[in-house]
Amino acid sequence: MDFQLLPLVGSPAELKAMSDQQLVQLAQEIREALCRIVSDRPAHFASNLGVVELCIALHQVYDFSRDRLIWDTGHQIYPHKLVTGRYPQFDTIRRKGGLMGYPNPVESIYDLFVTGHAGASVSTVLGLKAGDDLLHPEEGRKSVAVIGDGALPSGVVFEAFNNASELNKDLLVILNDNKMGICPRVGGLAKYLDKARAAPFYNGLKKDVSWLLNKLPLVGEPTREMLGNVKDAVRSFIHGGKLFEEMGFRYIGPVDGHDLKSLREYLLMVKEIKGPVLLHVFTEKGHGFKPAEADPVQFHSPAPFCRDDDSGFIFLKKGASRAYTDTVSDAILTRMRTDSRVCVLTAAMCEGNKLQAIRSEFPDRFFDTGICEGHTVAFAAGMAKAGMRPIVDIYSTFLQRSFDHIFQEVALQNLPVVFAMDRAGLCGPDGPTHHGVFDNSYMRVFPNITIMAPGDEADVAPMVDLSLKLNGPSSIRYPKTNVATVERTVAPLELGKAEVHSTGKDGTFVAFGTMFIDCVKAAEKLRSDGLDVGVVNARFLRPLDMAPIATAIEQGGFVITVEENTLNGGFGSAVLEAANAAGLDTRRIQCLGIPDRFIEHGERGELLADLGLDAVGLLVSARTLAEKSLVG
């Protein structure tokens, strides 16, 4: 397909002048642009295909250069980027130095927040509306949040609904209902929304009943009560949005999210309604691309694929390499087969955490709680108190959302909950919203938690086994990358004991996590260059094994701690604190890790190299310290 309209869209203003026929063609061109991107690199796909018409209609009806728009979650931002003047840069998306795969205020005035975690859109849009009304009441700015049904169960959403009802601001929440999160949605709200799919259009009936009451003169209380009962009966019969109306929102819908003309009409209507409004829009995840329609889970963020224009067949380019995620899920499954107390909880990330086999083999011990991380952790605490051995399997960046529950319900109670933190470290093209670079710091602030990280694949299964034997909480962090193994005689895993891979009189790398692999590579190169450098695979942040580190310090060589976590309060900080408490000379300890800033998106290898955390960067740091030692 040749793009005829898309290159002409320099801003959303161009959409207002297009005919309906041109808008349909533009939607097709947007979908083709999405297909071309995902044919080249992994990217969010099915969710973007599903909101093309909704995006176009929103930008036709509103002027978001002044009005407010928040996409929740922001991974369906691609059509929005294409119609807000970023088509010329679109082929750079999710590449280092290119467009971010999420909203980014640095890129455009049409992006207000970097939204990579679900659930906060209603709160932030309500805050924007309250601020605009206080500072610029004469401008009458509109505020719109687009939230998916997968994000809807998040507790913060209902906190925002409750507050919005009290403030009674003119606010539009569009519920983008595609029956999916990343995986099929779960829970009571999912069942409620399923009922709405079978219901006819409903606009709350409040206006209609009020009109009827006003037309009847001298209506007594019995008549008013009867008419109110009629309204309730009709509302119950057609289901509608009773839940949202009870929370103070005018419910309108359901509306076909792929009918551009109809969408535009309803958006024009709700734009004039006072007070909070919820517009319920049905979309199809993967719409317009048959394979994605048939398998929206597979095509949520697929591997690159190619298309055969003759047959229409899709060839997915699947890599054969195993990731740490696979190794961890396999180890958990093995333990579940031998211990009936072990169960797994995840927050809408069954596919991402590779838990399908566990869900299939042990459905009664697998719990998908939806995008509700705080609830998941508190739920796990209850299960642990009852005698189970729950494993909370959540991405590092998302587990942050349950910080208080890790404290109050798990650590404070000293309960045996295991936190399996996937995507720990740099997550590549997903960027700063998804980099899991804070968990070393936020886990170690709480007493009682044993904190582990495998140095390579050989450490994974023993750490899972050990964590399930402990009588208190524990965490295991592992990165989004393919597994690797350092050739060696693997030291048995013992609680609080590091593995001394090698010793060196000139210096020592102390690695926490899979940085161990690059440390070994760097040390081997340094030895060939005449520097005798050892490597310690720390394995534990708590309890921290200071013995080999103290030996390295006392020998007079340098010590370099290496972690894929922020340096603020991380593993290196723990080493410095322990060394200082022991009265050791800390002047020749250097801590390497993530600096005190948010890291952009890019391939993990590119980012590690930029930060000096690959083998080459470790070589440079070691040589610099060695030279300083000679001068000193």
Structure commentary:
By secondary structure, the protein is of the alpha/beta class. α6 (121-135) packs parallel to α7, α14 (324-338) packs across α20 and α21 (515-528) crosses α25. The chain contains 25 helices and 19 strands. Helices cover 39% and strands 16% of the residues. It folds into four domains: 6-203 and 245-294, Thiamin diphosphate (ThDP)-binding fold, Pyr/PP domains (Rossmann fold), CATH 3.40.50.970; 205-239; 324-477, Thiamin diphosphate (ThDP)-binding fold, Pyr/PP domains (Rossmann fold, 3-Layer(aba) Sandwich), CATH 3.40.50.970; 499-631, Rossmann fold (3-Layer(aba) Sandwich), CATH 3.40.50. The strands form four sheets. A seven-stranded mixed sheet has the order 9-8-10-11-13-12-17, with helices on both faces. A five-stranded parallel sheet has the order 1-2-3-5-4, with helices on both faces. A five-stranded mixed sheet has the order 14-16-15-18-19, with helices on both faces.
